[in-house]
């Protein structure tokens, strides 16, 4: 069993392959995580072409700075999500600030509220996608299908106590969505200046 400081084998091997400059490794990484990266970027930016640009930026950053990811700090999936979040928020803030400077509607406070809402929504999406399937299925039934815990237990074929436990854990995870800095997110990725 892996300890907290032992990175998953795939993540460690992928980081080493990227550090050696293996183009096939970047392709494999892209195939595995492009949908996640693009989905998170789109959730923050609400713009297809902007999400496409952020997706390219994320994978370009990984290619140019393969040592920026430290497998001992957590899974590559989490690190990529944090990097995506940071770059997407940075792009949203820059785009909205430019619109304000051109005389667009709103204030700087409105901008920060929009950025915060987008950040929390993207983080909540990531948390739901990343949680174990048993927690996710219980939450989906209870929250999205509006089933109570008894109906959810019957749907899943588990005890009511287990259903309550899964819902409690899932909601505890979701409550961290307001902690906008995603785990594993670099403070300032190499090659990117300024704060997000």
TrEMBL record:
Alphabetized InterPro entries for the sequence: RNA_pol_sigma-70-like, RNA_pol_sigma-70_dom, RNA_pol_sigma70_r2, RNA_pol_sigma_r2, WH-like_DNA-bd_sf
Keyword entries, A-Z: Sigma factor, Transcription, Transcription regulation
Chain ranges of the RNA polymerase sigma-70 region domain: 29-94
Ubl conjugation listed as a keyword: no
Pfam families: Sigma70_r2 (PF04542)
Alphabetical list of PANTHER family matching this protein: RNA POLYMERASE ECF-TYPE SIGMA FACTO (PTHR43133), RNA POLYMERASE SIGMA FACTOR SIGZ (PTHR43133:SF62)
UniProt protein name: RNA polymerase sigma factor
Organismal lineage: Bacteria, Bacillati, Actinomycetota, Actinomycetes, Kitasatosporales
């Amino acid at each position: 069993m892996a300890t907290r400081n032992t990175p998953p084998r795939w993540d460690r091997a992928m980081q080493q392959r990227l550090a050696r400059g293996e183009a096939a490794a970047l392709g494999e990484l892209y195939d595995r995580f492009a949908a996640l990266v693009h989905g998170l970027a789109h959730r923050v930016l609400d713009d297809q072409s902007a999400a496409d640009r952020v997706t390219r930026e994320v994978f370009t950053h990984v290619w140019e700075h393969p040592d920026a990811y430290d497998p001992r700090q957590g899974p590559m999936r989490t690190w990529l999500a944090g990097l995506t979040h940071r770059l997407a928020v940075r792009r949203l803030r820059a785009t909205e600030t430019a619109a304000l400077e051109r005389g667009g509607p709103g204030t700087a406070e409105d901008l920060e509220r929009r950025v915060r809402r987008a950040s929390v929504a993207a983080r909540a999406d990531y948390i739901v996608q990343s949680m174990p399937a048993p927690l996710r299925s219980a939450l989906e039934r209870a929250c999205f299908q509006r089933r109570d815990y008894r109906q959810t237990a019957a749907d899943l074929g588990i005890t009511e106590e287990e259903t309550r436990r899964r819902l409690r854990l899932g909601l505890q995870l979701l409550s961290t969505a307001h902690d906008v800095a995603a785990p594993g997110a670099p403070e300032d990725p190499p090659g990117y200046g300024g704060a997000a």
